[in-house]
């Protein structure tokens, strides 16, 4: 497995920067200066992740930012099931690698000619495809797109309303309460857990500075550009982090909000289960684990490990995912 470790933290920051900036449009415009400064230095990278291949697996190409939490969660799924895939690291500014796509976010997955957008949809479609033994193109039709008006953000939105559901067809399903629990916690990752990330990563000027050290070190900067990224990015993200904290009503101490979410998760697993899926991880385990890997290497991650009950579960998950333990469990 080829891991693009050198860009790990830089991409986390880059992604949370983009997420944050989208959440705060006015500051995004200010951020344009930063974006322009950074633009030439994001490098297009390809890597091949290889593990078990099945005859049924189409050629999978994952378009991603290396440590965007949504991309991390998709990779955790692919790695756990030992699927072979190619990574295309997207330039977050030009996004030229995904010019072919109307959907402008990552992750997006190409399975042969079929494009699947959104981390949760990718997970559901691929898992359903394994369960049913049907090609991705056919399974994707089971997730119809609906369009609606989002009154909060005042935009027209296209969604696959059943994106957290798995398709079993004629096959026997696990107990319904287990399926419901798995769905609800997968949704919780997208609607609660990830919202605690940016305010924590940019919590203090020191942490924000630390994060932007990684960005500038990962890129090929001349001294002026490196300084511009460090100083401008550090300050801007510090303030954007505060806005996000307010938007999602996080606690005064944002670490506490992250700890609370982690402890909620371990409490939901309880004392009698190793994983939410029982003896083996289910899609909720993979989703929580994958999203949290985006924080690795940052102070936030170390604090989370020290101050919550998540460490043991996280360590077991790492073994399962890195060991592709789901590769024998594709049905
Ligand atoms: N619901 C999507 C969210 C994906 C998302 O927001 N991705 C961010 C990166 S962290 C992105 O691509 N933003 C680019 C942009 O909005 O311009 C998923 O789960 O995949």
Per the CATH scheme, the topology name is: Glutathione S-transferase Yfyf (Class Pi), Chain A, domain 2
Which series of helices and strands comes N to C?
HHEEHEEEHHEEHHHHHHHH
Shape: globular
Average pLDDT, rounded to a whole number, is 83
By DSSP (H or I, 4+ residues per run), the number of helices equals 13
Low-confidence stretches: 1-14, 20-55
How can the largest sheet be summarized?
5 strands, mixed
Rounded Rg: 19 Å
CATH architecture heading: Up-down Bundle
How many structural domains?
Answer: 1
Question: Describe it for me?
Answer:
This is Prostaglandin E synthase 2. Residues 204-331 form the GST C-terminal domain. It catalyses: prostaglandin H2 = prostaglandin E2; prostaglandin H2 = (12S)-hydroxy-(5Z,8E,10E)-heptadecatrienoate + malonaldehyde. Residues 58-144 form the GST N-terminal domain. Pathway: Lipid metabolism; prostaglandin biosynthesis. The chain is α+β, with helices and mostly antiparallel strands and 331 residues long. It has one domain (5-328): Glutathione S-transferase Yfyf (Class Pi), Chain A, domain 2. Helices cover 51% and strands 11% of the residues. The protein contains 13 helices and 7 strands. Strands 1-3-2-4-5 form a 5-stranded mixed beta sheet. A two-stranded antiparallel sheet has the order 6-7. Helix 3 links the parallel strand 2 (60-64) and strand 3. Helix 2 (25-38) runs antiparallel to helix 9 (223-247), helix 3 packs across helix 11 (283-293) and helix 6 packs parallel to helix 11 (283-293). The longest helix is centred in the C-terminal third of the chain and has 25 residues, at 223-247. It binds glutathione (GSH). Glutathione (GSH) binds at residues 15, 18-19, 22, 65, 68, 70, 104-107, 118-120, 190.
